[in-house]
Specification:
There is one protein chain. The chain has 427 residues and is of the alpha+beta class. The chain has three domains: 86 residues, Beta Barrel (OB fold (Dihydrolipoamide Acetyltransferase, E2P)), CATH 2.40.50; 82 residues, Dihydrolipoamide Transferase, CATH 4.10.320; 221 residues, Chloramphenicol Acetyltransferase, CATH 3.30.559. The protein starts with a strand and ends with a helix. It binds oxidized coenzyme A.
Length: 427
């Protein structure tokens, strides 16, 4: 068997072209016209095909080397005499360009850009000829149906590497689950922020990674409506203040949230559709006869929602104690998975922080969630005059597949009435 040298083909006058990929290794059996190395000039990239079939003996170049026409690339133990002289002619493109590209460059040059097929994974169709990527990477992307225009390269001069394509595909798969009913959205572009200034990477906490996925799913798959309202809690607050000092002696912190929890239970009883879950088929409503409330707790590592059980059967002070215990447990990372299951409806209170209203995301499999913001005194017109009243802002998000707008408004009015006159809560 003859040992043949495979040399760099006619580069059409280009000199010192860089080797950016070596696609074979000693011992590889290759077919005639198989790509063996990838070269890149200032203008284009090129796959060099093998002139013959055979076994690769020795690689004479490495990535980064510069080659010109005639430079030896590798030696090959040829499987047979080269029958087709055409392989020695000028190099043809590995893949014919798309029609649009043909129009732009009707004459074939010795070095031609490898044009990718149209992207199919996501995003708008876009030419990738001005993108820095070797043919191997382009081929890999093409096989996966990835649009290279959506990837920012991590290689020198922002060259897109194989790993960039892999990372992109992984991100896509985690963003759009097949179970989302065929939902296909354009991918979020990857942006190299270091182009604009100094940056620092911070990996999200475990809690944020988990809750982020759930929040995204719930936000996308549940048609949310948020109904805003306000409750006059002037008398409730007077009562709370009258009890506060005495309860503090027993280390009990009676915050407005405890009253809100009791009021929510009264409203859930009046509007059973809010104390329900829609089965995954979306055709059957499962009504619950128990009253467990999820309470969003802000921890240094992110949001968690422990569940307080049988709120209907517990008094204000008992609830206050349990709320304090559970939020401390959450902040000390001591919640067990079971502590966060079995909720019927959730409350997210930002009242201790501030803000006027927000749009909470429903905590699936529940069908509604109440957001609570900070109270403020407002002038309320009563009996022919404006009087200062302490108003509590409420934001109720509900699943519109289960709850109509009218029912949402009735629920929030009922809740406001419950809070406005705490005698209602005693009933
Ligand atoms: N308006 C005005 N003041 C309020 C209030 C409101 N709506 N709600 C609470 N406050 C006051 C409390 O009375 C307390 O003041 P005092 O000590 O003077 O009585 C102070 O704000 C702090 O309250 P708190 O936050 O410690 O207690 P809480 O019972 O209201 O809430 C908990 C407990 C665990 C829910 C809360 O600490 C928490 O983590 N909230 C954040 C939840 C969150 O991140 N939600 C966002 C989720 S994203 O959808």
């Amino acid at each position: 068997m003859a040992i043949k040298e495979i040399v760099t083909p006619d580069l059409g006058g280009a000199q010192d072209v860089t080797v950016i990929e070596v696609l074979v290794k000693p011992g590889d059996t290759i077919q005639k016209d198989a790509s063996i190395v990838t070269l890149e000039s200032d203008k284009a990239t090129l796959d060099v095909p093998a002139e013959d079939a055979g076994i690769v003996k020795e690689i004479k170049i490495k990535v980064g080397d510069k080659v010109s026409t005639g430079s030896v690339l590798l030696t090959l133990e040829a499987a047979g005499e080269a029958k087709d002289e055409s392989a020695k002619k000028k190099v043809e493109p590995v893949k014919q360009p798309e029609k649009a590209a043909e129009k732009a460059a009707p004459k074939q040059e010795p070095i031609k850009e490898t044009q990718p097929e149209q992207p199919v994974l996501t995003g708008t169709l876009q030419s990738t000829s001005d993108i820095h990527a070797g043919p191997g990477v382009r081929r890999f992307a093409r096989e996966l149906g990835v649009n290279l225009a959506m990837i920012s390269g991590s290689g020198p001069k922002q060259r897109i590497m194989k790993e960039d394509v892999q990372t992109f595909v992984k991100t896509q798969l985690t963003q759009v689950q097949p179970s989302s009913g065929g939902l296909s959205l354009p991918a979020l572009p990857q942006i190299d922020f270091s182009k604009f200034g100094v940056t620092e990477q911070q990996v999200l906490s475990r809690i944020k990674k988990i809750s982020g996925k759930n929040l995204q799913r719930n936000w996308m798959m549940i048609p949310h409506v948020t109904q805003f309202g306000e409750a006059d809690i002037t008398t409730l607050e007077e009562f709370r203040q009258s009890q506060k000092a005495e309860l503090e002696k027993q280390k009990i912190k009676l915050t407005p949230l405890v009253f809100i929890m009791k009021a929510v239970i009264a409203s859930l009883k009046a509007f059973p559709h809010f104390n329900a879950s829609l089965d995954p088929s979306g055709e059957t409503l499962i009504l619950k006869k128990y009253f467990n409330l999820g309470v969003a707790v802000d921890t240094p590592d992110g949001l968690v929602v422990p569940v307080i059980r049988d709120v209907d059967k517990k008094g204000l002070t008992e609830l206050a104690k349990e709320l304090a215990q559970v939020s401390e447990k959450a902040r000390n990372k001591q919640l067990a998975p079971g502590d966060m299951q079995g909720g019927c409806f959730s409350i997210s209170s930002l009242g201790g922080i501030g803000g006027t209203a927000f749009t909470p995301i429903i905590n699936y499999p529940e069908v509604a969630i109440l957001g609570v913001s900070k109270t403020s005194y407002k002038p309320v017109y009563q009996d022919g005059e404006f009087v200062p009243r302490l108003m509590l802002p409420l934001s109720l998000s509900y699943d519109h597949r289960v709850i109509d707008g009218a029912e949402g408004a009735r629920f929030i009015m009922h809740l406001s009435n419950m809070l406005s006159d705490i005698r209602n809560l005693l009933l």
